[in-house]
C-alpha cells in the first residue's frame, strides 16, 4: 500500500484529497497545524509546523508509533490567498513551507511530489491583466500579480531545478482554480454580479474533482516537472460564456469556439497526460 503524506489535509481541498485517497486504498497521513473536522478514522493526524525544516524532515522520514517510510507527498498547506496576512509574511510562509517539503522529500528519496500551485499564475486578476488568448492554458509564461502568486511562481521554478538535479523525480504543480464544495453552491449562479468573478474568468473547481486530479497526478507515469491547469469544465454562471467574453474581455484572441457555459480555463493538458475527468458541477446541487 502506498503511503502518502498530505500537508494541509485539514483545509477545504485537503479534506477532499484525504477522503479520496483513503477511499482508493492509499495509506494516508494528515499533516497540519490543526486537526481535520471530518477525517476518516483510520487516517492519523500529526501536528506540524512546516516552517521548521527539522519537523518536515522528520515527518517525511518516519514518526514513532505512526510510520517508518513515506512513498509520496501531497503538499497543500499554505496561506490560501493574498490579503490574509501582510504580503512579505505570506510569501515567506508559503515559500518556506514549500522549500522545506521539497528539500526534505529529496533527502528522504521520495520521487513523487504533487503540490497546489494556482490559477493566479495565469495573470489574475484577469479583469486587469488580460491573458494573451482564450481559453487560458499552460503555454504562456507565468504572470504573477500578487505576493501569493509570486510565491507560486517561485515554487514552480524551484521544482524545475529539483527535477533537473534528479531525473527520476516527478514534481507536479496543479494550478487549481477557485476551490468550491457543496457548502458554497447555494450562492450560485453569479449572474446577478458577473463582475465579481471576472478576476478568474468565472471559473472554479469542485473540491472532489481537485482531489481526483491529485490522485491522477500521483499515479501518472511521468518524470520531471509539469504544471497543469485544473478547473471545472463549466463556469459559475448561467449566462453563456461567449456573452461574458464579449461584454468583459472582447479584445482577447479566441483560439477555439466558446460554447455554452464552458470554462475559459483549459484543463485539456491534464485530460491528456493525467486522465483527469471531472465529474462534479455546482449545477448538480441547484435548488429544485
UniProtKB/TrEMBL annotation:
Note whether NAD occurs among the keywords: yes
Keyword Oxidoreductase appears in the UniProt entry: yes
Q: Which residues form the NAD-dependent epimerase/dehydratase domain?
A: 4-180
Cross-referenced PANTHER family, in alphabetical order? 4-EPIMERASE, PUTATIVE (AFU_ORTHOLOGUE AFUA_7G00360)-RELATED, NUCLEOSIDE-DIPHOSPHATE-SUGAR EPIMERASE
One Pfam family assigned to this protein is Epimerase
Q: Which UniProt keywords apply?
A: NAD, Oxidoreductase
User: What is the originating organism of this protein?
Assistant: Curtobacterium subtropicum
Instruction: Name the domain of life this protein comes from.
Output: Bacteria
Q: Which residues form the signal peptide?
A: none
The protein's name: NAD(P)-dependent oxidoreductase
Q: Which family does it belong to?
A: Belongs to the NAD(P)-dependent epimerase/dehydratase family.
Amino acid at each position: 500500500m502506498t503511503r502518502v503524506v498530505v500537508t494541509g489535509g485539514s483545509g477545504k481541498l485537503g479534506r477532499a484529497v484525504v477522503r479520496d485517497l483513503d477511499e482508493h486504498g492509499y495509506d494516508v497521513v494528515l499533516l497540519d497545524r490543526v486537526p481535520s473536522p471530518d477525517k476518516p478514522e483510520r487516517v492519523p493526524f500529526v501536528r506540524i509546523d512546516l516552517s521548521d525544516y527539522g519537523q518536515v524532515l522528520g515527518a517525511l522520514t518516519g514518526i514513532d508509533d505512526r510510520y517508518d517510510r513515506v512513498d509520496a507527498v501531497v503538499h497543500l498547506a499554505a496561506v490560501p490567498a493574498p490579503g490574509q496576512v501582510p504580503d512579505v509574511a505570506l510569501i515567506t510562509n508559503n515559500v518556506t513551507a514549500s522549500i522545506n517539503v521539497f528539500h526534505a522529500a529529496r533527502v528522504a528519496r521520495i520521487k513523487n511530489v504533487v503540490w497546489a500551485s494556482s490559477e493566479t499564475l495565469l495573470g489574475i486578476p484577469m479583469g486587469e491583466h488580460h491573458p494573451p488568448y482564450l481559453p487560458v492554458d499552460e503555454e504562456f509564461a507565468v504572470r504573477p500579480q500578487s505576493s501569493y502568486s509570486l510565491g507560486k511562481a517561485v515554487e514552480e521554478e524551484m521544482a524545475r531545478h529539483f527535477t533537473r538535479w534528479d531525473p527520476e523525480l516527478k514534481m507536479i504543480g496543479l494550478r487549481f482554480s477557485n476551490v468550491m464544495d457543496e457548502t458554497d453552491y447555494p450562492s450560485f449562479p453569479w449572474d446577478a454580479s458577473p463582475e465579481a468573478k471576472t478576476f478568474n474568468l468565472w471559473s472554479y473547481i469542485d473540491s472532489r474533482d481537485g482531489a481526483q486530479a491529485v490522485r491522477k497526478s500521483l499515479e501518472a507515469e511521468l518524470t520531471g516537472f509539469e504544471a497543469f491547469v485544473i478547473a471545472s469544465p463549466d463556469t459559475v454562471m448561467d449566462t453563456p460564456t461567449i456573452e461574458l467574453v464579449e461584454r468583459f474581455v472582447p479584445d482577447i484572441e479566441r483560439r477555439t469556439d466558446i460554447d455554452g457555459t464552458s470554462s475559459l480555463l483549459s484543463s485539456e493538458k491534464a485530460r491528456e497526460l493525467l486522465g483527469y475527468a471531472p465529474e462534479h458541477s455546482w449545477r448538480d446541487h441547484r435548488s429544485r
